[in-house]
Design a protein that fits this description.
This protein is an alpha/beta fold and about 900 residues long. The protein contains 34 helices and 18 strands. Helix 19 links the parallel strand 11 and strand 12. The chain is globular and about 95 Å long. The two termini are about 60 Å apart. It is found in: Nucleus. It comes from Arctia plantaginis.
Length: about 900
């Protein structure tokens, strides 16, 4: 039976079959009435009905007018025989719906241009494939515009640019953007000959962010996007390998045999590294170039660069471009920052910039396309990664360029990681071509020398990938990384304990990880360029010049020390998507549509990483006041002011509607002219993960490395208990009991719909049980003396209870420790300086709720007062949120079990 017949009887719409039937019928009657009163231009679409799904160009309103004027039918709600007009569809719809009649809007426009109904099968959005085809941003070639039949397109015919047509129909002089085109303007525009509109707009057109398919094409070709995504991909790959591994490595035996069989390593003794740790750093040499040269062996030994540009071809100078002004703004901004850092007047600071050798865009040295990677032959001539092509061609006129090969990079990277993973999973993934490996256990187990291991491993990687790599070994990650720089290209270097002091003396400060241009410039202004020079400064002096954190870090680094261990399990802290190229809007409508698309991209990535977030940040790059309107780099962002605005949600989410709504609200509040926008980014932080995989947090680390002075624990706990007793009963220094008066009891009363039985909890509560808390919270009968349980409280904790029911009944984590050790662990957690993780918070809540069940109220009050005091002392919003959540869960448990809240002093 239909829902409207069951739940909405006698609502006045029975004659039409219910409310929705009435609504649909009314809309269709309105369309028919309008079509009957308007002048019919043709019957091209006679017998055709369409339904528009999502954003299209032309828009749904425009298509509605076109159908009414040319004999077709437009449905607001989809019917089974409709042609679905769409530019793109979500993956869920693509997988589940019939795609046989999902057609691109170009079918309508080009049928009008041809003055006949074209075969819709030539315009299917997906054809026979269930993967959406991505367009290529190429120019449309116009060979002869005298006749419509002579019009020729490139190989993506049906994906021609219609943004200019859309612009024409919507009246190009329009400046307001929140409103859709008026009915009058639509009527006038649709009376134009569509064939003429097409002819007028078939010239060279460049797509911008106003195009509905721009984001897909941007991320398809963005090298920075691919690099970051590959890095995140392989960090996740290592996480999954470790979680699914039994940590047995049979491949070690074969590797050991190869090493021992070689005569080159038989007489070599094992090298000694600092603290008896052996850390290896692996870095592929000129990764993008090496992968590209596998298909271009004729370019080996020549200066080669990977870039989007072919170079040496100037383009027509665009009106409004003022490169000198824009470049000077960059330099002035950098000089001001360095002036603030060093205390030197910015007028006295001379800035060398990578744009210094860039000519105007009509010169062969005017290209601002960046070099992603260049060969060692090119580097020998002064080229470097990140250099503009214009500058590179000045230094190396015979530079050869090759395109990106993102599929090849992924293939080689997987081969690299899987090769290492067959011997050990003590891997810290850095990027698609770089990683650290703790070889200490591996080499000890195989009982081979590190020289043989490094040589054979590098040979295996080169044989499998066709690309060379370099390796560095040291006693920590810093030493290993610096050793790799020494080993390049295609070599290996061992920074043993006896070499560290002399080796570090000549290392340039700019080569230390974490030392940026501002820090390096300040140190150079103080007369320090190398680590050896910096070693003459005391720790106090470094802290006074650079701040406590940076000063202490450099004091250790310049001596080759690095206390940070390798991180084998990576936890993603944010999910984001940013576009800073091609952002050119004409109105607010285009801006809002783009925000929706970018929100969908972020939402897709959150699902990929199974993440939910509580903080949404919108980043806007807005053309600076003095910057030229036309940017030096074609469709680049230029010199901008950056605006970051965030909103915090009450609960973590990955809901697309919520993300989109918050992003649009943040954007509207800034009241920025959309024509001035040059870049947009969305970032979600404070992540929770929708996964059953265990996350190792700080609490677990302390549990596995638990060295807490017992005397200190006893004295602190004893003092805390005395303090609590004195507060609850000032005259009598004895422990308070649950059954005492409200002034003395740590349990405070709350209002209740029924009268609760006062006094000590029933005997059934005295037996500790892992299931007892679940029974209380789920409202089951456990005894007649159980107090009233508010059903609202039960609803609040229901989700948490269901999670606990699924967990093992064996006590683990904090539940497996004596309570007198927990406070010291909590103190170490708070003092660790790490961001509080969800897994740690859940572990603490489990322990405290168990104390509620076991009626350890006095001890619970000690811990809650301690948490309240110490989290306030940190002054951190994140830690205060942690305390508030813990407090809420504990109080919910108290109310569920005792009908009263726990007293926590202020």
């Amino acid at each position: 039976m239909r829902r409207n017949e069951d739940k909405f009887p006698d609502n006045g719409f029975e004659a039409w079959g219910g409310y929705m039937h009435a609504k649909i019928s009314k809309l269709e009657e309105q369309f028919s009435a309008r079509a009957g009163t308007e002048e019919t231009l043709s019957n091209i679409f006679n017998g055709v009905s369409i339904y528009v799904n999502g954003f299209t160009v032309p828009s749904a309103d425009e298509l509605k007018v076109l159908m009414s004027k040319h004999g077709g039918v437009y449905h607001v709600y989809q019917r089974s025989d409709d042609y679905i007009i769409a530019s793109n569809l979500p993956d869920t719809k693509v997988k589940n719906m019939n795609l046989a009649k999902v057609v691109k809007p170009q079918w309508i426009v080009e049928s009008l241009a041809a003055n006949r109904l074209l075969d819709y099968r030539d315009y299917l959005l997906y054809g026979t494939s269930r993967t959406q085809k991505q367009i290529n941003f190429r120019k449309i070639i116009k060979e002869n515009d005298s006749l419509a039949n002579d019009i020729k397109f490139n190989d993506t015919k049906q994906e021609q640019d219609l943004s200019e047509i859309h612009k024409t129909i919507n009246e190009p002089n329009t400046t307001t953007s929140d409103q859709k085109p008026s009915k009058e303007r639509l009527d006038n525009a649709t009376s134009l000959d569509c064939q003429e509109i097409l002819k007028q707009n078939l010239g060279a057109v460049t797509k911008t962010a106003a195009d509905p398919e721009f984001i897909a094409e941007f991320y398809k070709n963005s090298r920075l996007h691919h690099i970051s995504q590959l890095g995140a991909c392989f960090k996740q790959h290592i996480n999954e390998l470790r979680e699914n591994s039994n940590f047995q490595f049979p491949a070690r035996e074969q590797l050991k045999e190869i090493i021992l069989a070689s005569n080159n390593f038989k007489n070599l003794s094992q090298l000694k590294f600092e603290k008896n740790k052996i850390i290896m750093h692996i870095d592929m040499d000129c990764f993008f170039v090496s992968v590209g040269l596998r298909n271009r062996p004729d370019l080996k030994g020549k200066p080669v660069a990977v870039t989007h540009s072919k170079g040496g071809q100037g383009r027509s100078k665009r009106p409004g471009v003022d490169r000198d002004t824009e470049f000077n703004l960059y330099k002035q901004n950098k000089a001001k920052k360095l002036g603030i850092t060093t205390g030197i007047s910015h007028d006295e600071i001379k800035i060398e910039n990578r744009v210094d050798d860039i000519d105007e865009e009509d010169s062969k040295y005017g290209s601002m396309s960046e070099i992603a990677s260049c060969s060692y032959e090119a580097r020998a001539k002064g080229l470097s990664n990140g250099m503009f092509m214009g500058s590179a061609l000045r230094l190396c006129p015979d530079l050869q360029t090759i395109p990106y090969d993102f599929d090849g990079y992924k293939e080689v990277a997987y081969t690299l990681y899987n090769t290492i993973a067959q011997y050990s999973l003590d891997i810290e993934a850095v990027s698609c071509d770089e990683m650290y490996l703790d070889c200490t256990e591996l080499l000890s187990d195989m009982n081979v020398n590190v020289q043989g291991f490094a040589t054979i491993l590098r040979e295996e990687i080169k044989a499998k990938t066709g690309c060379p790599c370099s390796t560095g070994f040291g006693g920590n990650r810093l030493q290993a990384r610096l050793a790799t720089k020494k080993a390049k290209p295609d070599g290996q270097f061992f920074l043993t304990e006896d070499l560290v002091e002399d080796f570090m003396y000549d290392i340039k400060l700019r080569d230390l990880p974490g030392v940026g241009s501002q820090t390096a410039y300040k140190l150079e202004s103080l007369g320090h360029i190398t680590c050896g020079s910096l070693q003459t400064l005391t720790l106090a002096s470094l802290k006074s010049h650079l701040g406590n954190k940076t000063g202490a870090q450099l004091f250790e680094q310049c001596r080759g020390r690095d206390p940070n261990p390798l991180t084998f399990h990576t936890v993603r802290k944010s999910v984001s998507a940013e576009v800073n190229y091609g952002i050119r809007f004409e109105n607010n409508y285009q801006c809002l549509e783009f925000l929706k698309q970018l929100s969908a991209e972020v939402h897709s990535r959150m699902h990929q990483f199974k993440a939910m977030g509580k903080c949404i940040t919108l980043k806007l790059m807005v053309r600076a006041k003095d910057a030229p309107v036309e940017t030096a780099k074609f469709l680049g962002h230029g010199y901008c002011d950056v605006i970051n605005k965030s909103v915090s949600l009450q609960t973590a989410t990955n809901d697309l509607e919520v993300i989109t709504k918050e992003v649009i609200l943040l954007c509207k509040k800034q009241n920025i002219d959309p024509t001035e926008m040059r870049g947009i980014g969305i970032q979600v932080t404070k992540l929770d993960y929708v996964t059953s995989r265990p996350t190792v947090g700080a609490i677990n680390k302390f549990l596995f490395n638990n060295k807490i002075p017992k005397a200190k624990i006893k004295s602190e706990i004893k003092a805390e208990l005395v303090e609590t007793d004195q507060r609850n009963n000032p005259t009598t220094p004895t422990k308070s009991k649950v059954s005492t008066s409200p002034k003395k009891s740590p349990i405070i009363s709350i209002k209740s719909p029924t009268i609760r039985k006062r006094g000590r909890p029933s005997k059934s509560l005295r037996q500790p049980s892992n299931n007892l808390m679940n029974k209380f919270l789920q409202g089951q009968n456990v005894g007649r003396d159980v107090p009233y349980k508010d059903p609202m409280i039960r609803a609040v904790v229901k989700e948490e209870v269901e999670r606990k029911v699924e967990q093992s009944q064996t006590p683990r984590g904090l539940l497996g420790l004596p309570w007198n050790k927990v406070r010291a662990l909590l103190r170490a957690w708070l003092d660790s300086g790490e961001t509080p993780l969800q897994c740690d918070v859940v572990m603490i809540i489990d322990y405290l709720q168990e104390m509620v069940i076991n009626k350890n109220i006095e001890k619970l009050q000690v811990l809650m007062n301690f948490l309240r005091r110490t989290t306030r002392d940190t002054g951190s919003v994140a830690w205060l949120e942690v305390y508030n959540r813990i407090s809420e869960e504990v109080q919910n448990a108290m109310v569920a079990v005792y009908g009263k809240k726990l007293y926590i002093s202020n």
